[in-house]
Amino acid sequence: MTADASPSPSRAFVSLIGAGPGDPGLLTLRGAGALQNADVVLFDYLANPELLRFCPQAETIYVGKKGFSEYISQAQINALIVQKAQENGGQRVARLKGGDVFVFGRGSEEAAACVEAGVPFEIVSGVTSAVAAPAYAGIPVTHREAARSFAVLTGNTQEGGAHYERLSGVDTLVLLMGVRNLDQISADLIAAGRDPQTPAATVQWGTTPQQRVATGTLATIAERVREAGLEAPAVTIVGEVVRLRDTLRWFDTSQEFGGALAGRTVAVTRTREGASALSDVLRARGASVLEVPLIRFAPTGAEAALHARLRDLGGVSWLLLTSNQAVTALFTHLDHLGLDARHLAGVRVAAVGPSTARSLAERGVRADFVPGTPGARHLGAELPARPGDVALHLTSQVAEDELARGLEARGVRYERAELYRTEPAQPTEHVVERLRGADVVTLASGSAARHLAALAGTDFAVAAMGPQTADAARAAGFTRVTVAPAATLEALADAAAQAIRGGAAATP
Ligand code: SAH
């Protein structure tokens, strides 16, 4: 290191990230990494908002709107990217764009704005819808026999015929942004010499649970698309490769016979970490999932007291940890104190359930006790502590009293230290808007019901994890409540499906 009197280098940096076509699994590792490091994220209509879960720390700005009109102009977006990168002495900006950055994405203009402002940037290539939407419809853009070349073109161009004649030697055409002008485009292509009998397909919302496909020929595809009611965003593929869908179709087969959740949007509310398992179950059934965090974690307001308690654990028999967040926060604080897992050598550690136990194990601590059934009540009743033992519960400011009562009833001395705080989250307007568009909202706890009501009102069909949650939901003002028949994720997904079928009315 050299001693240098110049000011510290600016953090200003822009990642122009291809978000992929919709399936969140098609984001690249580099894209996920850039999101995790971002201070600010700008995203638009075609970038799946589910990807924002990689950057809960970042300020998020929605800059795109459905259709061709723009929410804010491209010039404004360029200026905003540069401005956000330069703010606060330099920030890391992630600009999340649908598909690939440079395929009809105006990414080059955003990169040019960075160059002009002297802001360093990177391009994180993404999976383009031009290839992925056909692929998810079972259509390969090339094939050893059927197609040796493909071209990607925009249907927005006014060039028409002359433009298409230049493409006459290309086997497969993939048309983006063309669904509105499909009549004109197919007429122009036929006029430019393409056989009207060439197979054609249009794929709307490719790679997502809402994917829909219409097939026909160049002569009929516009009509088929109209009949099926397909709209933007969609790609149209023209070429012999479209025939391969008959044998290679894979992604959208199950959905045609899918249950009530196929193609529907389920909002999954979270009042703690770890709801993604439910999201996976819902996605596997074809639902589109919107994860809505209702709380966020904040530093403890009593750090001095906490640190004093942690430094000297003398006299403590048991440490009680009742969430993954508690485990994370505990090790962060130990680290601040210059300590590590060895500091816990003299105390026994209990976890509220297997997930918390796993978090401990990841940090080298094997839980001495985990109740057979997860939950504060079972921990309080079953903890193998003796009367007079001190049990220190490291938790947030809103810990349930159930654990304390259970232990005190057995003569165990319960002590609590505030390790972190939970506060109501402030979802962006965009998330609230999407929430309002959801078919059903899942609630895993009474507090989720109360937070949701405070945040976005009660005009939702909700699926509740159990009778207690359902009661809390009704008390909070929700009227369309469906109760999961058992306390499992599968049952909650069943309840969501039932709510969509209108089952809420059938539930007392
Ligand atoms: N950069 C993007 C394209 C942006 S232009 C990419 O590489 O995919 C916007 C057009 O992309 C839309 O009008 C539509 O034609 C296409 N598109 C984007 N996502 C799509 C999807 N999931 N399914 C079908 N078409 C999509």
Q: Which properties best describe this structure?
A:
alpha/beta; Cobalt-precorrin-4 Transmethylase, domain 1; Methyltransferase, Cobalt-precorrin-4 Transmethylase, Domain 2; Rossmann fold; 4 domains; 5-stranded mixed beta sheet; elongated; binds S-adenosyl-L-homocysteine; Siro_Cobalamin_biosynth; S-adenosyl-L-methionine; transferase; 4pyrrol_Methylase_sf; uroporphyrinogen-III C-methyltransferase
Query: CATH topology of the largest domain, anyone?
Result: Rossmann fold
Query: Which percent band covers the strand fraction?
Result: 15-25%
- Counting DSSP H or I runs of 4 or more residues, the number of helices is 19
Calculate the mean pLDDT score and round it. Answer: 88
In short:
This protein has 508 residues and is an alpha/beta fold. The chain contains 19 helices and 21 strands.
